[in-house]
Amino acid sequence: MQRIAALVVLVALAGCATNQRTSFPPPQGPASPTIPSPGRTPEPERVPERPSEPEVMPPRSAQEASSPAVLSLLGRADTLARNGNMDMAAATLERALDLEPRNAFVYQRLASVKLAQGQGGQAEAMARKSNSVAGDNPFVRADNWRLIAEARRVGGDRSGADEAMQRASSYRSASQQLMR
């Protein structure tokens, strides 16, 4: 048994002791800059032109941006809200946010529920969160600014409501231009 162990150790050591060198290709990096000869102006570096990318239409509805599981929860929340069960609707929407925490449409629906519950500050906060994850989507932003305007109006902030409605109007115009 000791001879077998010694043989295994010798074979392992022999494998380590071979004098093989592995050659790796030189690293591929940016070429070194050429130094112009005196009296010569270097040519400007040419950047290949990229073809212009077609403008992608942002999602206009939750159906275009949500997974089937989230769509199911949104449908349940809508039914609960229609039946006046706002607490359960809000809880259902929060479960949807657990699945898709960057879904602007879910935050928007939660803002609507909070507004219906008389929680204007929470409604505005949810609409603002929706805007923060909506990117440049004018469809979502227009509706969020309408919700913010209503939350401010209910809270007695008339000038804030007017400002929010102006922003909603500008995003509505942007969304209509995208539709053309």
From TrEMBL:
Residues 42-53, 156-165 have a biased composition (Basic and acidic residues). TPR repeats lie at residues 70-103. InterPro entries: TPR-like_helical_dom_sf, TPR_rpt. Keywords: Signal, TPR repeat. Residues 1-17 form the signal peptide. Residues 166-180 have a biased composition (Low complexity). Residues 19-68, 156-180 are annotated as: Disordered. Residues 24-41 have a biased composition (Pro residues). This is TPR domain-containing protein.
